C-alpha cells in the first residue's frame, strides 16, 4: 500500500496552476542560467533556431512514445524504428535509385508494419510490451546493420533535405514546424475527441473500458501502429536533417525521448501524458544538453544528464499521478 | 435509547473500570477544502464490538485509514493503545506491532499475487536471511485457511477469485494477524472491518460474526463499519455515529431500536417505502427472452423479461445467480444460450460482446467497483459520461464544459457528495463512488439495466432514494435485472425474483410470496428442492 498524497481542493488551486506551468518556469530559469554564463554564444536566436530544429526528430519520437503509453503499452522500439526508417530511405533512394517520395511511403509503411508486429505479440500472444519491444529493438538494429553494411549512406535526394531544412520561418528550419504540426494533431486527438478519452480508459482500466463498450484490442493495435508510423516519420525527418542515413546514432534519441514523455506528463495537464507537455519537456532537455555541450563539458556528462533526467522524470510523474487517488474506498 | 455526544459526557455509566483498548482524542483530517474528520474522539473497550456508522462520506474510512497509517492526521490528536501513548502519525508498519489488523473497504489485497502470497505477505517480506521457505509457507497458509473453514485454492491469483472469496481471504488474513499477535504479546488486539459484508452471502456473514465473537471472548475488540442496520443491531455492543466528520451520537445497541439507529445516522426517520408495483408479468409486453443460458456453472431455463419489469436474481453462494448479469451482457462468455429482443431473431450469447450489448441498449453495473466499474485516477465527469461520450462531440470537438455541467446535474440528482465533477473518482467515499456509477447508467436510459449488488456501500437514506429511482425508471418502461444477496432490497424493488441453486432456476417468487422471509427460505430450502432428475443429471455432467 502506498502512502497517499491528497487531492487539492479549492484553497490550493493556485498551487495547481503553478504545477501546470512549473516546468516552463524551470526551463526559463535554465535558459537564464546558460545565458548569464554565455551571453553571446548561447543567448542568440541562431542558437535557439538550431536547437529547435535539431530536436524535432526527438520531439516526434517522444510523441510516438506517449500514444501507446496512454493505452498502457510501452514501445521501447521507437529508437530502432527511427533508425530503420532513415536507413530505408538511404538504401532505397541512394543505392537502389527509387524516387524519394516512394522511399518515404515505404519507410512509413515499414513503421506501420513494425507496429502491427508488436501488436501481434503483445495483444494476440499476450507477451509484455517491454519484452517484445526490447526484442524488436535488437532485431531491427541487426537488420539495419545488414542492410547498410554498417556504413553511413550519404547523398540522399536533395528535395528531402530542402523540404526539411531548406527553408526557415522566423529563422527556424522547417523541420521544427513538422514537429509542431504533429503536436497539434495529437493534442487535438487526446483532448478533444472521444477517441482520446477512450484511449485513456484503455490505459488506466482495461476491463472498465471493455465493459463500457470500448474495443480495447483495436485501440491498442491502433496505438502501436501509430507509434510505429510516427517513429518512422521521425526517421524521415532525421534523414532529411542529416542529409544521410546513419545506422547508429538514432538510438541516442531514445532515452531523452522517454524522459520527455514522462516529464511532459507532469506539466500542462499534470497526471496525463500529453502532447504539449511532451514538447515542452523535449526542449527543456534539449536546452540542458545544448547548454552543457557549449560549456565544453565532456561527452559523458550528456549521458549522465539523460539518464538522470529519465529517472527524475518518471519519479516526478509517479508522484503527480499518485496524488490523484487511484483507489476507490 | 440514543443520545448526543454532549449527553454522553455527563453520563455516569460512561465511567469504566477497564482501560480502553483504543483511545482516540481529537483526530482531524483535512483534504483540500473537505474536513473529512473533525475532532473525533473514540474509546473502544476490551472485548467490545463497536459499530461505526454514518452516511456516505461522513469520514468512517478516513478514520480507519488514519489508524492504518495510510493518512496522516492533522497535528493535535492523540492515540492510546492498551494505555500506551502512540505517536501520530502512525507509520504503516505500526499497526501490526500494536496488534491492529484491517479489512479495508477495498479489501487491500494485491490482485496480481496468489492467495498464498497475500495471506503470508508480511512473513514473506520479512523472511529470515532473505530466503523464503515456500514449503513452510504453503503449509502455514493451508492451516490458516482450514482453521477458518475457508475453501480457496492457495495458488490462485487473487484477481481470479470471486468477490466473495476475495472478501473471505481479506477477513481471514486480518483475524489470523490479530490472533497471532495477541497470542505473542498476551495483550488484546483490535480488528477493524470497513464494510466487509456487502459482498458476502448470509452464511459467510454468520461465519464472520462467529469469528468476531470468538476473539471478543478472548478480550480483543472489533470496529465494524456497515450500512446494514440489521447487521449492526445483531452484532455490535455499542455504536458511534459520524456526520460530516464529527461524532454526532453514540448508543448502546441493546437499548436502541432500528429506527433510532436510522435517525442517528441520517438525522430523520425513514417512512417505509411503499413502492407501487405494477401489472403482473402476464400483462406486460416482452422486452427480451433469454433461452438456455449456460456456462461452466450456470444452466438456466428460458426466462422472459417484461418491459418495465424489475427482476431479482438470488440464491446461495456459488449458486450462479451472480453470473447472470455478466452472461446476459456478454461481459463473461456464455457457452451457449440466446437472447431474443423484442421478437427479433435470436442473438447467440457466446458471440455477444459488451459493445454489441450496449448497441442493443443493454447496460451493466458490475459489483466490482475498483476493477470493473470505474477508474479511480480519472475524473468523475469522464467516468460518468464515457459510454455516451460521442454525444458531447460537436463539429469535431469534445465539449468538456457541457460534460462537466451534465455531470454536475447528475451528481446533484444522485446526491453525490462532494459534487465536484473534476475531482478524480477515487477521491470520493465508497458509497459516493457507487452513486456516480449508478447515475452513469441511469442517464443512458437503457432498455435493459443489469445490476450486480447495486446499493453496496450506499447509506440507508440514499439506498431508499436509489430504490425510488429504479422504480420510477421501471414505470417509464426500463427493464431491470438486479442480482443481489440482499433479500430486503429484492423485496423492496422487484416485481419478480428468480431463485437459483447449482446454476439452475429452481423457484420464482411474485406477488404475495415476494417477501424477505420467503426469499430467504427459498434460498435455504433450495438444496432440498432440487429434483431427483436434476441430481442425476448433475452426476452425468460432472
Ligand atoms: N484521497 C482523498 N482525497 C480527497 N478527498 C477525500 C479522499 N479520501 C476521502 N476524501 C473525502 O473525505 C470524506 C470522507 O470520506 P470517507 O471515505 O472517510 O467516507 P466514508 O464515511 O467511509 O463513506 P462511505 O460510507 O461512502 O464509504 C469524503 O468527503 C471524501 O470525498
Ligand atoms: Mg468508506
TrEMBL record, chain A:
The chain crosses the membrane at residues 21-42, 48-67, 74-92, 98-123, 130-148, 160-190, 221-241, 253-273, 280-301. Keywords: Cell inner membrane, Cell membrane, Membrane, Transmembrane, Transmembrane helix, Transport. GO terms for cellular component: plasma membrane. It holds the Pfam family BPD_transp_2. InterPro entries: ABC_transp_permease. It is found in: Cell membrane. It is a multi-pass membrane protein. Its main location: membrane. It comes from the Bacteria. GO terms for molecular function: transmembrane transporter activity. Part of the ABC transporter complex LsrABCD involved in autoinducer 2 (AI-2) import. Probably responsible for the translocation of the substrate across the membrane. The complex is composed of two ATP-binding proteins (LsrA), two transmembrane proteins (LsrC and LsrD) and a solute-binding protein (LsrB). This is Autoinducer 2 import system permease protein LsrD. It comes from Sulfitobacter marinus. The lineage of its organism: Bacteria, Pseudomonadati, Pseudomonadota, Alphaproteobacteria, Rhodobacterales.
Automatic annotation (TrEMBL), chain B:
It comes from Sulfitobacter marinus. SMART domains: AAA. InterPro entries: AAA+_ATPase, ABC_carbohydrate_import_ATPase, ABC_transporter-like_ATP-bd, ABC_transporter-like_CS, P-loop_NTPase. One of its GO terms (molecular function) is ATP binding. Pfam families: ABC_tran (PF00005). Keywords: ATP-binding, Nucleotide-binding, Repeat, Sugar transport, Transport. It comes from the Bacteria. Residues 22-269, 282-527 form the ABC transporter domain. This is Monosaccharide ABC transporter ATP-binding protein, CUT2 family.
Amino acid at each position: 500500500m502506498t502512502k497517499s498524497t491528497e487531492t487539492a481542493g479549492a484553497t490550493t488551486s493556485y498551487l495547481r496552476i503553478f504545477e501546470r506551468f512549473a516546468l516552463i518556469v524551470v526551463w526559463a530559469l535554465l535558459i537564464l542560467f546558460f545565458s548569464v554564463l554565455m551571453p553571446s554564444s548561447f543567448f542568440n536566436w541562431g542558437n535557439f533556431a538550431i536547437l529547435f530544429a535539431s530536436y524535432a526528430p526527438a520531439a516526434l519520437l517522444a510523441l510516438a512514445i506517449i500514444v501507446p503509453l496512454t493505452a498502457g503499452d510501452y514501445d521501447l522500439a521507437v529508437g530502432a524504428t527511427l533508425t530503420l526508417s532513415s536507413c530505408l530511405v538511404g538504401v532505397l533512394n541512394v543505392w537502389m535509385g527509387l524516387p524519394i517520395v516512394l522511399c518515404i511511403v515505404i519507410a512509413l509503411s515499414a513503421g506501420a508494419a513494425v507496429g502491427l508486429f508488436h501488436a501481434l505479440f503483445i495483444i494476440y500472444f499476450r507477451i509484455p510490451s517491454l519484452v517484445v519491444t526490447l526484442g524488436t529493438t535488437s532485431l531491427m538494429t541487426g537488420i539495419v546493420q545488414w542492410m547498410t553494411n554498417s556504413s553511413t549512406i550519404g547523398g540522399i535526394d536533395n528535395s528531402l533535405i530542402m523540404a526539411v531544412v531548406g527553408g526557415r520561418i522566423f529563422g527556424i528550419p522547417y523541420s521544427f514546424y513538422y514537429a509542431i504540426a504533429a503536436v497539434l494533431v495529437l493534442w487535438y486527438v487526446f483532448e478533444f475527441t472521444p477517441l482520446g478519452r477512450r484511449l485513456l480508459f484503455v490505459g488506466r482500466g482495461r476491463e472498465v473500458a471493455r465493459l463500457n463498450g470500448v474495443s480495447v484490442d483495436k485501440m491498442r493495435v491502433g496505438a502501436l501502429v501509430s507509434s510505429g508510423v510516427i517513429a518512422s516519420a521521425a526517421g524521415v525527418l532525421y534523414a532529411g536533417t542529416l542529409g544521410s542515413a546513419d545506422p547508429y546514432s538514432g538510438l541516442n534519441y531514445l532515452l531523452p525521448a522517454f524522459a520527455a514523455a514522462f516529464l511532459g506528463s507532469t506539466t500542462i495537464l499534470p497526471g496525463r501524458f500529453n502532447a504539449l507537455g511532451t514538447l515542452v519537456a523535449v526542449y527543456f532537455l534539449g536546452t540542458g544538453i545544448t547548454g552543457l555541450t557549449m560549456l565544453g563539458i565532456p561527452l559523458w556528462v550528456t549521458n549522465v544528464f539523460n539518464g538522470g533526467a529519465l529517472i527524475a522524470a518518471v519519479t516526478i510523474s509517479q508522484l503527480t499521478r499518485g496524488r490523484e487517488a487511484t483507489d476507490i474506498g | 435509547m440514543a443520545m448526543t455526544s454532549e449527553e454522553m459526557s455527563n453520563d455516569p455509566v460512561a465511567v469504566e473500570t477497564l482501560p480502553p483498548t483504543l483511545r482516540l482524542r481529537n483526530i482531524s483530517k483535512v483534504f483540500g477544502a473537505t474536513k473529512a474528520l473533525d475532532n473525533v474522539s473514540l474509546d473502544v473497550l476490551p472485548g467490545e464490538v463497536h459499530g461505526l456508522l454514518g452516511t456516505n462520506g461522513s469520514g468512517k474510512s478516513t478514520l480507519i485509514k488514519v489508524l492504518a497509517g495510510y493518512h496522516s492526521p492533522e497535528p493535535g490528536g492523540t492515540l492510546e493503545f492498551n494505555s500506551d501513548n502512540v505517536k501520530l502519525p502512525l507509520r504503516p508498519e505500526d499497526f501490526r506491532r500494536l496488534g491492529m489488523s484491517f479489512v479495508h473497504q477495498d479489501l487491500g489485497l494485491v490482485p496480481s499475487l496468489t492467495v498464498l502470497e497475500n495471506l503470508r505477505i508480511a512473513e514473506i517480506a520479512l523472511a529470515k536471511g532473505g530466503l523464503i521457505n515456500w514449503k513452510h509457507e504453503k503449509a502455514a497458509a493451508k492451516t490458516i485457511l482450514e482453521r477458518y473453514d475457508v475453501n480457496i485454492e492457495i495458488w490462485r491469483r487473487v484477481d481470479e477469485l470471486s468477490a466473495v472469496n476475495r472478501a473471505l481471504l481479506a477477513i481471514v488474513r486480518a483475524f489470523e494477524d490479530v490472533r497471532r499477535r495477541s497470542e505473542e504479546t498476551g495483550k488484546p488486539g483490535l480488528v477493524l472491518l470497513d464494510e466487509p459484508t456487502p459482498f458476502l452471502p448470509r452464511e459467510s456473514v454468520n461465519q464472520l460474526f462467529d469469528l468476531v465473537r470468538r476473539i471478543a471472548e478472548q478480550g480483543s475488540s472489533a470496529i465494524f463499519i456497515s450500512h446494514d442496520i440489521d447487521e449492526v443491531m445483531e452484532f455490535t455492543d455499542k455504536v458511534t455515529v459520524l456526520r460530516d466528520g464529527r461524532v454526532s451520537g453514540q448508543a448502546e445497541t441493546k437499548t436502541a431500536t432500528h429506527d433510532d439507529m436510522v435517525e442517528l445516522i441520517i438525522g430523520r426517520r425513514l417512512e417505509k417505502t411503499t413502492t407501487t408495483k405494477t401489472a403482473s408479468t402476464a400483462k406486460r409486453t416482452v422486452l427480451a427472452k433469454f433461452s438456455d443460458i449456460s456456462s461452466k456453472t450456470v444452466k438456466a431455463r428460458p426466462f422472459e423479461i417484461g418491459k418495465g419489469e424489475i427482476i431479482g436474481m438470488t440464491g446461495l453462494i456459488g449458486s450462479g445467480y451472480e453470473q447472470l448479469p455478466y452472461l446476459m451482457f456478454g461481459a463473461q462468455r456464455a457457452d451457449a444460450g440466446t437472447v431474443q429482443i423484442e421478437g427479433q431473431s435470436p442473438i447467440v450469447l457466446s458471440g455477444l460482446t459488451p459493445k454489441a450489448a450496449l448497441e442493443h441498449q443493454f447496460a451493466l453495473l458490475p459489483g466490482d467497483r475498483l476493477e470493473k466499474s470505474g477508474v479511480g485516477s480519472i475524473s468523475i465527469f469522464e467516468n460518468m459520461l464515457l459510454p455516451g461520450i460521442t454525444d458531447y462531440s460537436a463539429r469535431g470537438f469534445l465539449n468538456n464544459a457541457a460534460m462537466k455541467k451534465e455531470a454536475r446535474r447528475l451528481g446533484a440528482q444522485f446526491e453525490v457528495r462532494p459534487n465536484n465533477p473534476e475531482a478524480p473518482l477515487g477521491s470520493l467515499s465508497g458509497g459516493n463512488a457507487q452513486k456516480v456509477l449508478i447515475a452513469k447508467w441511469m442517464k443512458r436510459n437503457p432498455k435493459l439495466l443489469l445490476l450486480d449488488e447495486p446499493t453496496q456501500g450506499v447509506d440507508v437514506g440514499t439506498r431508499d432514494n436509489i430504490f425510488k429511482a429504479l422504480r420510477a425508471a421501471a414505470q417509464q418502461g426500463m427493464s431491470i435485472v438486479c442480482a443481489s444477496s440482499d433479500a430486503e432490497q429484492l423485496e423492496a424493488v422487484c416485481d419478480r425474483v428468480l431463485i437459483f441453486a447449482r446454476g439452475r432456476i429452481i423457484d420464482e417468487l411474485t406477488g404475495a410470496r415476494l417477501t424477505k422471509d420467503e426469499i430467504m427460505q427459498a434460498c435455504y430450502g433450495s438444496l432440498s428442492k432440487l429434483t431427483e432428475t436434476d441430481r442425476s443429471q448433475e452426476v452425468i455432467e460432472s
